Amino acid sequence: MALTTRCKFVVDETTIGRSGVPTKLKLSAVYPDPVKDGDKHDEDHAFFNATPYGLIEVWIQNPHGAELFQPGAHFYVDFTKVEDADGSAS
User: Fold this and answer.
1) What is the band of 89 on the pLDDT scale with cuts at 50, 70, 90?
2) How crowded is the C-beta side of 54, counted as CA atoms within 13 Å?
């Protein structure tokens, strides 16, 4: 069974593509906001402690799929290592 690591990211920027050009998305790892959250230990603090920095940049060809990624929206990102057909890790 493959191990999975979960991170939490927020959409920073969405550049809408025109006909035939994919939509470009930029996401970054969440960080606690002391103004909004104060000193409470919430989910963003926990994810920040595990993954304090990260950037993801992707292009989405499907315009309906791209609509999901509005700036400020939060997403869980799961990383699972791909295994070869024989069960070994690649």
Assistant:
1) low
2) 19
Q: How far apart are CA 70 and CA 73, in angstroms?
A: 6
Nearest 10 degrees: Cα torsion 54, 32, 59, 77 = 70
Mean pLDDT of 66-81: 92
DSSP 22: P
CA atoms within 13 A on the CB side of 72: 0
CA distance 54 to 35: 22
Where are the chain's structural domains?
4-80
pLDDT digits (tens, 9 = 90+) for 26-64: 999 988 877 766 666 578 888 888 888 999 999 999 888
Q: Are 69 and 11 in contact (CB under 8 A)?
A: yes
Going from the C-alpha of 71 to that of each of 25, 26, 48, the distances in angstroms are 9, 9, 19
